[in-house]
Backbone:
C-alpha cells in the first residue's frame, strides 16, 4: 500500500459551531492506482488531499505513506516527504511568473545537490514528454492555460515522485484541454506506474480513476 | 536552477521596487561616507599643516575667523599691510619672522581655486622646522633654535622650495600640486590669472594640505590684481614659545588694533573640534540609518513577502523547508545590503570630492577603507531589517492562498 488512511477526522472551529470537514475517513490505495475523489463543493475533498500531503494537520486519525506516518511528522520531515515523494498539480497551475518553463520545471530540484546540467537534462526530458520542449524559455504568461498546466505536470514529475496529488487540475481548462491533461496524467500513471490521486468535481474526469471515492459532508459516500 | 539563481532571478524581476527599498540605506551610507571622506582628509591636513607650517602665531582681521583663513572667502575682511612694518619696527622680543598673506578665491578656466599673495623672503623664513607640534589638542612645544628631531620632518624638496620662493618674481607664481594637475599646468609654463600672464616658477610637491589647492604669487602683484591695495588677510608669525608665554600675544594686540591674534594651538583645537563635530554627525547618521534604513528594508521585505505569499506557499508545498525560505529572504537582504553599501560609497565619495573643496577648502580623495565600513553598515542594517519578514515568510503555510486564482 502506498497510502493508508485510518479513521481520519478534521474539525474546524467556526462561529456557528464545529464543522466536521472530514469524518471517519478510511481507505487504502495500492501502488500505481489512479484514484479520483469527487463530491460537491464543501464535501471535504480538498481537505482530504491536503491532509494526505501533510499540508494541513488532521484533528485525529492516522495517515500512512508506506511506513511513513504523515499525521505525526514534523515540518522538516513533511518538507522532505513532499520534496522526495510527491508531485503536485493544482487548479491554478502555481507556476512562478518570473521563471521560464524549464526553470519552473527544475524548481523542486533547486534544493537538491544535483549538478545543474543533470537538472537541466531531466527538465528537458519532461518538457519533451509534455510536448513543450520548444517553449522551454517562455514565461508562464507567454503560454496558454493548457500549456501552463502541462508545465506544472512536468514540474510534478521532476523529483520522480511515487505519488501525484492533483487538485482540480482541469478546473481552469476547457473540455478539449481538460481531456488532453487527463490523458497525460493517465499516461503517466500507466507508463511510469506513478500513483495519482486526483480531486475533481467533473464526472468526466472522475471516470479516469481506477478507484473512485465519493465524499459527502466529509464522509465517504462510496468507493468503487 | 539552485537557490542562489532563484533569489537572483526574483531580485531582478522586482528590480523596480528596489529603488524605494534601497533609497534610505543608500543615502544614509552616502552621507556617512561623504562626511568621513572630508573629515579624514581634514584630520590629515591638520597633522600635516602642523608639520609644515613654520609660524605658530596667526594674526587675522577682527571679525575674521580661522575658517576664513582656510576657505579664503571672497569677502573675508583684511587689514593694512603696514601692520607688518609695525611689528618689524617694534623690536618685540620673540618674533623671529613674519609672513604676510592675502588670500582670495578666484576662477581660472571655469574652476574655483585660491590665490595667495606672499612676500617671498618672509614666507621662506617662516617655513622653519623648529616647531614641534602636539597633534590633536595636546600642547604645542617650541624652542627658538632648530630641533634636531624635527629637522628630519621637513619637506623632501625643502631646498628647492626655498630657492623658488627666493626667486619668485612679480610675474612668477608657484602652483600647488592639485591645482596644477587640475588646470593641466606644468613647471616653466604660463598661466593667466585675473587677466595677467604668470610664469609657473614651480609646481610644489604634494603636501596633503590646503596649499595643494593654492596658487602663490607675489603679495604686491596679487594686491594689484585683486584691487586690494596695501591690504592683507593674515600675518603668520614665528614666535618663540618662551616669549609667547611671557605675554607676546598681548604685546602684539597692543600694536595691532582691530586684529585677532591666535596661536596655532588654538587653530588646531578649532579644527579638531570641527572634525569631532563631523564625526559626531557621522555617528548620528549611523544611528538614523540603523533605524530608518532598517525599517525601510524591513518594510520593503515585508511588502515583498506579502506579495509573494502564494509563491512562498507553493515553494513550501513542493518541499522547500522553512530554513530554505529564511535563507532566500536573508540572501535577498544581503544583496540589497551589498548594493546599498557600494552605491552609497560611490555617491558619498563623489559628494565628498565635490563638496570638500567647497565647504572645507580641501581636495578630497576617495578613502578605500570606507568601502568596508559602508558594506558592513549596509549589510548589517539590511539583515537586521529583514529578520522579522524572513521569519514571518518561513511561517507561511504551504499551499497558502493556492486556491485563489
Residues:
Amino acid at each position: 500500500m502506498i497510502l493508508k488512511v485510518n479513521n481520519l477526522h478534521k474539525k474546524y472551529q467556526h462561529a456557528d459551531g464545529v464543522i466536521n470537514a472530514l469524518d471517519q475517513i478510511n481507505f487504502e490505495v495500492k501502488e500505481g492506482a489512479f484514484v479520483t475523489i469527487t463530491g460537491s463543493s464543501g464535501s471535504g475533498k480538498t481537505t482530504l488531499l491536503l491532509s494526505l500531503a501533510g499540508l494541513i494537520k488532521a484533528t485525529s486519525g492516522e495517515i500512512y505513506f508506506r511506513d511513513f506516518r504523515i499525521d505525526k511528522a514534523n515540518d522538516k520531515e513533511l518538507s522532505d516527504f513532499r520534496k522526495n515523494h510527491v508531485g503536485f498539480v493544482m487548479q491554478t497551475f502555481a507556476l512562478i511568473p518570473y521563471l521560464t518553463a524549464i526553470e519552473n520545471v527544475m524548481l523542486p530540484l533547486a534544493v537538491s545537490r544535483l549538478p545543474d546540467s543533470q537538472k537541466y537534462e531531466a527538465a528537458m526530458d519532461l518538457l519533451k514528454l509534455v510536448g513543450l520542449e520548444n517553449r522551454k524559455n517562455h514565461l508562464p504568461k507567454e503560454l496558454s492555460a493548457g500549456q501552463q498546466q502541462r508545465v506544472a505536470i512536468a514540474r510534478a514529475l521532476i523529483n520522480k515522485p511515487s505519488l501525484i496529488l492533483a487538485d482540480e487540475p482541469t478546473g481552469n481548462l476547457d473540455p478539449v484541454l481538460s481531456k488532453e491533461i487527463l490523458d497525460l496524467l493517465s499516461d503517466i500513471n500507466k507508463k511510469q506506474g506513478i500513483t495519482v490521486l486526483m480531486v475533481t468535481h467533473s464526472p468526466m474526469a472522475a471516470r479516469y480513476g481506477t478507484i473512485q471515492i465519493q465524499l459527502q459532508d466529509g464522509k465517504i459516500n462510496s468507493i468503487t | 536552477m539552485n537557490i542562489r539563481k532563484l533569489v537572483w532571478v526574483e531580485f531582478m524581476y522586482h528590480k523596480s521596487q528596489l529603488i524605494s527599498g534601497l533609497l534610505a540605506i543608500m543615502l544614509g551610507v552616502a552621507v556617512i561616507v561623504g562626511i568621513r571622506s572630508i573629515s579624514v582628509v581634514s584630520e590629515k591636513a591638520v597633522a600635516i599643516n602642523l608639520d609644515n607650517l613654520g609660524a605658530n602665531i596667526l594674526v587675522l582681521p577682527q571679525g575674521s575667523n580661522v575658517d576664513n583663513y582656510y576657505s579664503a572667502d571672497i569677502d573675508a575682511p583684511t587689514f593694512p599691510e603696514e601692520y607688518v612694518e609695525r611689528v618689524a619696527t617694534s623690536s618685540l622680543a620673540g618674533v623671529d619672522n613674519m609672513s604676510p598673506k592675502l588670500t582670495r578665491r578666484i576662477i581660472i578656466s571655469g574652476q574655483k581655486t585660491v590665490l595667495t599673495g606672499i612676500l617671498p623672503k618672509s614666507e621662506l623664513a617662516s617655513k622653519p622646522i623648529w616647531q614641534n607640534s602636539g597633534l590633536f589638542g595636546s600642547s604645542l612645544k617650541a624652542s627658538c633654535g632648530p630641533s634636531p628631531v624635527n629637522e628630519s620632518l621637513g619637506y623632501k624638496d625643502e631646498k628647492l622650495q626655498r630657492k623658488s620662493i627666493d626667486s619668485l618674481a612679480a610675474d612668477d607664481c608657484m602652483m600647488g600640486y592639485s591645482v596644477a594637475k587640475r588646470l593641466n599646468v606644468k613647471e616653466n609654463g604660463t598661466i593667466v590669472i585675473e587677466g595677467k600672464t604668470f610664469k609657473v616658477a614651480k609646481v610644489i610637491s604634494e603636501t596633503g594640505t590646503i596649499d595643494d589647492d593654492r596658487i602663490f604669487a607675489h603679495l604686491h602683484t596679487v594686491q594689484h590684481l585683486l584691487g586690494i591695495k596695501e591690504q592683507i588677510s593674515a600675518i603668520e608669525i614665528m614666535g618663540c614659545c618662551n616669549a609667547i608665554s611671557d605675554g607676546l600675544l598681548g604685546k602684539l594686540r597692543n600694536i595691532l588694533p582691530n586684529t585677532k591674534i591666535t596661536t596655532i594651538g588654538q587653530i588646531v583645537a578649532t579644527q579638531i573640534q570641527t572634525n569631532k563635530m563631523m564625526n559626531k554627525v557621522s555617528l548620528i547618521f549611523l544611528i538614523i540609518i540603523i533605524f530608518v534604513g532598517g525599517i525601510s528594508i524591513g518594510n520593503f521585505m515585508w511588502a515583498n513577502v506579502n506579495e509573494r505569499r502564494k509563491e512562498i506557499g507553493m515553494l513550501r508545498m513542493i518541499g522547500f523547508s522553512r530554513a530554505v525560505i529564511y535563507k532566500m529572504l536573508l540572501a535577498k537582504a544581503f544583496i540589497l545590503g551589498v548594493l546599498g553599501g557600494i552605491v552609497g560609497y560611490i555617491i558619498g565619495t563623489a559628494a565628498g570630492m565635490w563638496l570638500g573643496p567647497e565647504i572645507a577648502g580641501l581636495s578630497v580623495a576617495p578613502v578605500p577603507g570606507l568601502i568596508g565600513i559602508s558594506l558592513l553598515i549596509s549589510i548589517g542594517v539590511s539583515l537586521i531589517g529583514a529578520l522579522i519578514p524572513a521569519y514571518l515568510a518561513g511561517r507561511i503555510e504551504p499551499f497558502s492562498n493556492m486556491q485563489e486564482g
Observations:
- The interface with chain B takes residues 46, 50, 53, 55-56, 75-76, 79-80, 82-84, 86, 88, 90-92, 94, 96-99, 103, 106-111, 116, 119, 155, 159, 172 of chain A (CB under 8 Å).
- The mean pLDDT of chain A is 89.
